[in-house]
Amino acid sequence: MAKTAWKAGTLLAPVPPALISCAHGGKDNLITIAWTGIINSDPAKTYISVRKQRYSYDLIKKSGEFVINLPSQHIIRSVDFCGVKSGREVDKFSACKLTREKASQLDCPMVAESPVSIECKVTDIVELGTHDMFIADIVAVNIDERYIDEKGKFHIEKCALAAYAHGQYFALGKKIGSFGFAVKKKKKGKKIQNPIPYITCRNSKKKICPSQHLNYNKFEKEVLYMQIFLVFLLKVLHFL
């Protein structure tokens, strides 16, 4: 298959249409950010890239904190609204009827309607060009209790998370695998016995399987097939 070469661009997809909550000086805001991800495991670190012109930029820079709220499909209209409207003009929490929820480690609020809220403290700011990257430590992860079972397992597949790709929002589809499944050894099951027993040929003492290729003359083959038929018939009669 041939590929068409395009000029360099930001076509990396899918990504989470993350709903970022931030606050400073008695003001809070929501901003939708797609440029986000994990950059380190231990310590757990993440980032968001924000344009300097955005209202949330100064709130995050001055407070040094933000929350990444992963959106479900149920609030995707609000997610889009928060990505195109400015917090200078409207209270997005009120306009979208979203609920402020107190964070466990930060002063800025979380979004109660989000199934997963990740609290972050800024450690570095990197100027890149159109965006500045806020690198942050993940200091807490908050998960809606409805998606945690009695054994403490998080069922992320039940969160109905949304994804963003090439200017469009998508619902995550069905599970097609899990980490490491490509190299996981299959469990050995019980060996299924051949339902047709081995038969001793009249010209040989060795036992042969009827399913194997047999090099016998026409008469011997007819006798063998007759034996197979009789064995099968006896088994049928046995179960009647």
Give a written overview of the molecule.
This protein has four helices and 13 strands. The protein has helices spanning 55-63, 76-84, 92-95, 218-239, and strands at 18-24, 27-33, 36-40, 45-50, 65-70, 100-101, 110-111, 116-127, 132-143, 162-165, 168-171, 199-200, 207-208. It has a seven-stranded antiparallel beta sheet with strand order 2-1-5-8-9-4-3. The chain is α+β, with helices and mostly antiparallel strands and 240 residues long. The longest helix is centred in the C-terminal third of the chain and has 22 residues, at 218-239. It has two domains: 18-171, Roll (Pnp Oxidase, Chain A); 199-239, no CATH class. The mean pLDDT is 88.
Summarize the structure.
The protein has 4 helices and 13 strands. With 240 residues, it is α+β, with helices and mostly antiparallel strands.
Q: Globular, elongated, flat, extended or rod-shaped: what is the shape? A: elongated
Q: What's the CATH class label of the largest domain?
A: Mainly Beta
Q: What is the string of SSEs from the N terminus onward?
A: EEEEHEHHEEEEEEEEH
Q: Count the strands?
A: 13
> At CATH's second level, what is the architecture of the largest domain?
Roll
Q: Report the sheet-strand fraction.
A: 25-35%
| Fraction of residues in H or I helices | 10-25%
Mean pLDDT: 88
Strand order of the largest sheet: 2-1-5-8-9-4-3
Domain unit count? 2
Please give the alpha-carbon distance between the first and last residues.
Answer: 59 Å
CATH superfamily of the largest domain: Electron Transport, Fmn-binding Protein, Chain A
Q: Classify the secondary structure makeup into a structural class.
A: alpha+beta
